[in-house]
Amino acid sequence: MTAHDDPTGHPPYDLIGIGIGPFNLSLAALADRAETISTLFLDAKPEFRWHPGMLVDGARMQVPFLADLVTLVDPTNPWSFLNYLRDRQRLFPFYFAERFQLPRREYDHYCRWAAERLPNCRFGSPVTAVHWEADRRLYRVHAAGAVHHARHLVLGTGTEPVRPAAFDALHDHPAVLHSADYLTGRRVLDGARDITVVGSGQSGAEVFLDLLRRRAGDGTRLRWLTRTRALAPMEYSKLGLEQFTPDYTRYFHGLPEQVRDALVPAQWQLHKAASAETLAEIHDHLYERTVGRPIDAEPVEILPGTAVTAADRAPGGGLALDCRHGDSGRRHQVRTDAVVLATGYRAVRPAALDPIDDLIDRDDRGRYRVDLDHRVATRPELTGGLYVQNAELHTHGVGTPDLGLGAHRAAVILNAVAGKTLHPLPHRTAWTSFLPPAAAAVDPVLPRPLEGNERAAASR
Q1: Cα separation of 186 and 272, whole Å?
Q2: Residue 317: HSE in the Cβ half-sphere, 13 Å Cα cutoff
Q3: Torsions phi, psi of 154, nearest 5?
Q4: Predicted pLDDT at 442
């Protein structure tokens, strides 16, 4: 059986993508113009959806519209946001709106526009198993009753909601929902007279603001608990944002593992805080609601520096949250009717990879070892590239989940797969030098990493 004897009658693909979120969709869009690379992207969902539970009215993106699927790599690409506006006859309305950040609902609609038209994207195709055929040096991908072969794979399976261990006793309680399901499950909050939001990030702020607006004047007590000591805004200064550049990614990747592991949680204000605009809207809303009345007349509590240590059903109904204030150590209990957990997400490990799990190399904490080209380290007998998107926070830093680096990462992967430069990428992207010149010149631990095409040439 030759490499071209595929059961589907299709020659092996150069690259198959598992999962179609914004990052693999970006790769699909850039690959669409690469005539020498054949690609296929598969997703179990029937259609593209981007955080449907958080498409709250008025919610905006935290990145400029230029952080679309392709523009920061290829501004002339037909899958750009501006071309979407042209296709939808919305260029002039967008021009007059003079907003750099898009409504979140419009970003979702733009991605669906691209996903429905890209010929290399296939929905309703859950990948159930991936095998490595060593004799043919091909991946065998089982999806929706079909079998496909590919020389390389890229994982873009996204993330899943995190529910803190403190809420394990309420894992199936209908009045405890994650912010990922906020819009679809919001009706369960309608009868609640006391609602608690847990989590200080953008999702927590947007949920709290939406509840303030929806429940204004009806007597419902709204509470916002956060473990962070203050509701500090996300870093959005121009030089601060340079930590979301390829330059910083290269610097971070070159650091020792223990340094990287210490840096990521310390940088929470770069990627886990709420925007200053949303925090300002919350304050403005509360200010206007209390005109002519004392502040404590409103049934609203905002409690930073407070962790929920345990949660369970309360005697007589409702929920009981055991809380601890970090600075004072004081403990107290909160009685509430419903909880919205805005407690973030974590990378998903696809069960479809189980057949090749023993061929994947991991660090001491069970995480992928990922090189600068976003390729996962594997055993020598697995020669096909296994690439990841948004599963390398520990190796590539806080820019990993950021949409602003999505197109650049997709281009890096595409160049590495092709073994040549399909998309030229800039050598310098930041004014900041993250490594002192002396260290850059003499420190052997931090060499300049090879680009994808250089690495491919060096391996020949």
Answers
A1: 23
A2: 4
A3: -135, 130
A4: 53
The model's confidence at residue 321, banded by pLDDT at 50, 70 and 90, is very high
CA Rg value for the chain: 24
What is d(CA 302, CA 271) in angstroms, rounded to the nearest whole number? 21
3-class secondary-structure state, position 30: helix
Tokens of 141: 């991908």
| CA distances to 11, 116, 153, 407 from 46, in Å | 25, 11, 21, 24
DSSP class of residue 361 equals -
DSSP code, position 123: -
pLDDT digit string (tens) for 3-60? 444 555 789 999 999 999 999 999 999 999 998 999 999 999 999 999 999 999 889 9
Q: How far apart are CA 193 and CA 181, in angstroms?
A: 20
CB-based burial, 17-55: b 16+ in 10 Å, e otherwise? bbbbbbbbbbbbbbbbebeebbbbbbbbeeebbbbebbb
By DSSP bridging, strand 121-122 and strand 101-103 are: unpaired
What is the phi-psi region of residue 220: left when phi exceeds 0, alpha when psi lies from -120 to 50, beta otherwise?
A: beta
63-to-37, 100, 101, 294 alpha-carbon distances in Å: 30, 8, 6, 37
Q: Within 10 Å of residue 291's Cβ, how many Cβ atoms?
A: 6
Q: Parallel, antiparallel, or unpaired: how do β-strands 331-336 and 319-325 relate?
A: antiparallel
Dihedral sign of CA atoms 388, 51, 199, 59 in order: positive
Two tokens, residue 415: 């160049």
SS3 at position 429: coil
Residue type, 259: V
Single-letter residue type at 95: Y
Per the listing, tokens 């925090």 go with 279
Tokens of 249: 């990614």
First-to-final CA distance of the chain: 26
Strand partners, 106: none
Report yes or no: 171 and 177 within 8 Å, Cβ to Cβ.
Answer: no
- Cβ(391)–Cβ(18) below 8 Å: no
Q: What is the pLDDT of residues 157-173, one digit of tens each?
A: 989 999 999 999 999 99
Residue linked to tokens 């909601």: 161
In which band, very low, low, confident or very high, does the pLDDT at 440 lie, cut at 50, 70 and 90?
A: low
Whether the predicted model's global pTM rises above the 0.85 cut: yes
DSSP 375: B
